[in-house]
Fold this protein.
Amino acid sequence: MNIRQADFLISVSSISGLPEESLPEIVFAGRSNVGKSSLLNSLAAVKGLAKTSSTPGKTKLINYFLINSELYFVDLPGYGYASVSHQEKAVWGKLLSSYIERRSSIALVVLLVDSRHPGMQSDRAMMEFLEFHDRPYGIVLTKYDKLTQKDKVATRRMMEKSSSKAEFIVNYSSFSGTGRNELLAHIEHYFRQ
Ligand SMILES: Nc1nc2c(ncn2[C@@H]2O[C@H](COP(=O)(O)OP(=O)(O)OP(=O)(O)O)[C@@H](O)[C@H]2O)c(=O)[nH]1
Ligand SMILES: [Mg+2]
């Protein structure tokens, strides 16, 4: 697909604030700092559309972006970051899990996994959660530009082994554009279904 228009729509802090279910939603989930907001900007080719930061925990709300007036991209708060307080963790965790459980307009969850750490427990738990709720999901291995050639082969192999239910795996770099066209093709397929 070709992204002709991408506009920020709304930030929500609770399930009751979500927009009415109308358009299909492509959801971006993953650990804090994995590169969700950067990936959104690179897909839309708009710098600063989603706010990015080298400090984990930048995105604390559910952010909606309207794409080509026909679908939403949804940037979720990151999970798994150790230094936030228990209370804060519980609030974000609840927002994230109830969104995934309840939202029937989810067409696809794009689960971002740091290509340097493909075996993290929190990512495994998220995959199981998505499988339990029958949400179709694909995996994006982020920050692929940081890997050595040897790591590229090992990471890919490990991910393929541990995520047999994923619809696809895409190697991605928001910096170089690696994987962008491949991911856009997958997204198109799911939102048109
Ligand atoms: N080398 C490299 N760095 C990246 C890439 N994508 C993101 N980063 C860096 O990773 C850091 C986190 O990026 P964000 O896009 O803010 O990550 P996020 O998942 O939205 O983080 P939270 O909102 O805190 O959950 C920033 O310093 C980015 O510059 C990439 O493809 N390659
Ligand atoms: Mg973010």
Remarks:
- Strands lie at 6-12, 25-30, 62-67, 71-75, 106-114, 137-142, 169-171.
- The pocket of guanosine-5'-triphosphate (ligand 1) is lined by residues 30, 32-38, 52-54, 56-59, 78, 142-143, 145-146, 173-175 (CB under 6 Å).
- The radius of gyration is 15 Å.
